[in-house]
Amino acid sequence: MDNTKWLDDDEQHLWRSYLDATRLLFQQLDKQLVRDAGISFADYEILVLLSEAPEQRMRMRDLADASTTTRSGITRAVTRMEKAGWVRRAGCETDKRGAWAELGDGGAAKLAEAGPGHVDAVRKNMFDVLTPHDITAMTRAFEAMRERMHEDRRDR
Amino acid sequence: MDNTKWLDDDEQHLWRSYLDATRLLFQQLDKQLVRDAGISFADYEILVLLSEAPEQRMRMRDLADASTTTRSGITRAVTRMEKAGWVRRAGCETDKRGAWAELGDGGAAKLAEAGPGHVDAVRKNMFDVLTPHDITAMTRAFEAMRERMHEDRRDR
DNA sequence: CGCATCTAGTTGCTTAGTCAACTACCTGGT
DNA sequence: ACCAGGTAGTTGACTAAGCAACTAGATGCG
């Protein structure tokens, strides 16, 4: 017996559009950033997270969680960005295992350089074709998905 | 002067939810497939494309476009899947440069094995929390984004 | 207190995927 | 018919990111 509840036509249609549009979007954003500002989308996002954090710094672990990657991924990303002069590492006083990643001047400058072009691209490829009504529905939907998935997220 | 039209709060909120939910979803789908069926999400999608194509085969170039990756990426993916016995390569009669990638028996079996668990995961993490109304709005939105981006997609 | 267990971060190893360059082939214009 | 320029697929070199294993430090329980 086949207990599987396959996707119906509407669901299938959404699924394909979502996958395709999203991959296309992420690729275009990455390309735009690399081309115009010499920074990858992934690295850019890390800088944004740091820039918004209290004292512009975050623990490695929290960075990994917030950016939906792994601890080792963050180690490597921070090492890379440290070499580029965008972030600094600082030891943690209260937890000697720990390390802070701090936004450096170079990183702030890079953010300022990359930000406008990036936002333009996000707008052009996404928000320009969305109605306020779409925005409401999508926000609700993605929030719900996020919540659902955060429930059973296990360490990696 | 700053001509940049930054995202307002609602836009920002959607943007973050979308990024976060999507990355989480893609990761969970990949993990589920690897764990339960020994196939990556990327490879699974290629098999799906082939299975739906006329005669269950596609030209390499078309596969690359359809899966939003690059020609070289598809070359390597097909090589890998050929070794696994999931697809076959066949020369193209009418265009001697060309090559077909064909779904093999192993691939069809792998699809049958992986499909149900995958659909369950997609349902659980996405469609279960969407209303029919969400589905309509999102489909319209992603279709529009897709169209917009397909316009100025250049070869890679 | 002392030990078992957990957590933070890093690293070795491996894999997937990109770009650029290359070969082989196709196509359109003259 | 020929050739200039384009296209299909592959490959070499490289980068990014994941897992598993490891070290060092924290935590809790008897």
UniProtKB/TrEMBL annotation, chains A, B:
Domain HTH marR-type: 11-147
Lineage summary: Bacteria, Bacillati, Actinomycetota, Actinomycetes, Mycobacteriales
Gene3D superfamilies attached to this UniProt entry: Winged helix-like DNA-binding domain superfamily/Winged helix DNA-binding domain
A Pfam family the protein falls into: MarR_2
Name of the protein described by the UniProt record: MarR family transcriptional regulator
Annotated organism of origin: Rhodococcus chondri
